[in-house]
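testing teh design pipeline on a random one, pls ignore if ur not involved
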């Protein structure tokens, strides 16, 4: 996409956001790429380079939670490259642009597939994390959540002080259902949404991949921000074919100009 085409798309995106009632951002791993966190899919994705991971994670956890916890505590991560990147990551201009948009009253909710806690670090408030948050723990029965460092780990597996259920990392494993509270919030947000930003997601993982389709079918607009084509490109009204850290601040700047005018 040429600089002129990008400028035109930025203009259209700013106007669409300004004229919408309820704007929701659906975010994927691409937003954090410029924070040094590798994506899974896409040309430089970890799975593209190393192959897909074992899909029986949750099954193993359910069979023997104690053993799962012992392994988690004792071993270094099988994706050490990912763990190092996540530990060192800080929000980039794309995360801050979303925080700005929220503070300007132009973004009402973020549905993120990321587990990296970077939206919170950037200061965003209205966030639903469909795949959980790596800095938290969660009870598999009642979905209560705690920051990792505030939970007394005096037995393995740890148990929920409220309901006695088993506690695991909040991050959703392969084969694990999306926590009901998060899924319900996403469905409610998608129903209210008349303009959805699709940022750095290859949109092949359900249920997230279905939200934009629901928005589209109820007459809402879709704005894609991604340097690469995705399955959602063809149903998007506006496409910003650029890294989120570059494109999103431009949209925010243009909205400021238009709203101030
Ligand atoms: P994905 O890895 O499947 O796809 C990433 C997408 O981001 C691709 O379409 C790619 O073109 C795009 N992209 C790359 N660089 C970009 C940039 N600078 N700006 C905008 N877009 C860019 O990601 P996904 O769709 O989110 O699915 C993978 C799953 O893995 C997620 O659901 C998530 O739970 C997990 N994951 C999380 C993190 C994280 O927390 N940061 C990182 C990797 C994977
Ligand atoms: Zn509980």
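output:
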């Amino acid at each position: 996409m040429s600089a002129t085409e990008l400028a035109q798309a930025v203009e259209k995106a700013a106007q669409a956001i300004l004229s919408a009632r309820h704007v929701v951002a659906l975010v994927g791993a691409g937003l954090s790429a410029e924070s040094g966190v590798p994506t899974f899919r896409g040309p430089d994705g970890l799975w593209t380079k190393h192959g897909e991971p074992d899909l029986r994670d949750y099954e193993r956890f359910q069979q023997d939670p104690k053993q799962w916890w012992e392994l988690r505590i004792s071993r270094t991560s099988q994706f050490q490259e990912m763990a190092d990147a996540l530990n060192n990551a800080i929000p980039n201009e794309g995360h801050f642009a979303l925080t700005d948009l929220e503070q300007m009253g132009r973004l009402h909710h973020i549905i993120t597939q990321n587990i990296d806690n970077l939206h919170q670090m950037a200061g965003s408030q209205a966030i639903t994390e469909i795949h959980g948050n790596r800095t938290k723990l969660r009870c598999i029965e009642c979905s209560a959540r705690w920051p990792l460092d505030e939970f007394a780990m005096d037995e393995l597996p740890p148990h929920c002080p409220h309901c006695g259920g088993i506690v695991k990392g909040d991050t959703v494993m392969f084969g694990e259902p999306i926590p009901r509270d998060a899924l319900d919030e996403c469905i409610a947000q998608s129903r209210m949404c008349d303009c959805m930003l699709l940022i750095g997601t290859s949109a092949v993982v359900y249920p997230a991949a279905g939200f934009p389709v629901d928005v589209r079918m109820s007459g809402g607009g879709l704005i894609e921000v991604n340097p690469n084509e995705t399955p959602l490109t063809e149903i998007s009204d506006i496409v910003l074919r650029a890294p989120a850290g570059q494109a999103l601040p431009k949209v925010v700047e243009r909205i400021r100009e238009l709203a101030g005018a």
